[in-house]
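User: Please predict the structure of the protein below. I'd like the answer in structure-token form so I can feed it into my own downstream comparison script.

Assistant: Understood. Taking the following sequence of 390 residues as input:
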Amino acid sequence: MSASAPKSGAARSEIGAQTIVRTVLIAVLVFLALYLIYLLRTPLGWLVIAMFLAIALSGPVNLLHRHMPRGVAILVAYLALILVPIGIAALVLPPLVREATKLVDNAPKYVNDAQNWFNHNPTLHKLDQQYHIGTNLEKKARELPQHIGDAASTLSSLGSTIVGSLFAALNIVVLSIFMVAGGRSLLERGLELARPEHAPRIERVADRIATAIGNYVGGALFQATIAGITTFVVLTVLGVPFAAPLAVIVALFDLIPLVGATIAAVLVGIVTVFNDFPLDTIVWTVWAIGYQQIENNVIQPQIQRRAVEIHPFAVLVSVLCGATLFGVVGALLAIPFAASLQIALREWWEYRQAVAVDLPPGVERPAPPEAPDEELPARIDLPPSAEPPT
């Protein structure tokens, strides 16, 4: 007994040392993996964006593939993708630059009009005398043309940032082209690495995620198109200049969940102030509030009800987290990412439930047998010959 006790104590101490070493090694490996992900965060982010872009364009590519070779279908889809931002820039930037130049040239006139408005209004005139608002505005207006050179130098310093963004966009497009060109073969090669009993469930998850992302992107684009068309009609009726560029801006901001439509409405409202204040501003404000209610309660639910089924609280949290981590791109990808995560977690939970009842994956638990409609009699009368002897 005395000899076995030290041996058991030594064995326990050896097991404890092995556990400590294993735990420390796992912690170090996890730390190194997270640090590596941090170092590679930029290309990994490009890869994620390219994957979502490939999934979103796989639908149009498959549709075009019915009428032309797949390579030509991919070329047409990505040419359209590249031409869209070029067309938007050609439509929005020239009037924006022209109006900015006109604003700088007419700034003194606007200040004089504001000064006259202050002088004819007793309350504003009193505030002007107390805080010298008109004098300060006139001073800033005279200094505004002098700052054009500073603005030009600031824009020129952003050249490296623009070039870097174009380089990132080019890499993302190329990566997504490879993914779309690979098509189903990439998924099939990945499934070969999984267990045979897990492959059907993984394939089903991938198909459901692809469908959800494709439907979400298509629905968001359709919703933004409706917002842009209705904005163009309203601004044209009101006679607001540059209705088409403003409508494009509204459509682009409408793609940003939760806050995009509100920001666009405020920007257009500022433009209406310089056109016919206060009539155009009041009409636009009423229209913007009413349309956002219709979009949030009618248009968006009808478009997205088959795409993603996520609780509004989860949508808000995912958008806030995505915007904080990756800016506007993170806000755009937050909802489809949350939908993909929800689909994966739901399939994993169903798999765990199937394992818990010792059923093979993908096999549903059989329903319990139904009770008979007629109840058995409470007492069965036996014939006299079958009665037991007394």
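That's the full token string. The chain has a mean pLDDT of 75.
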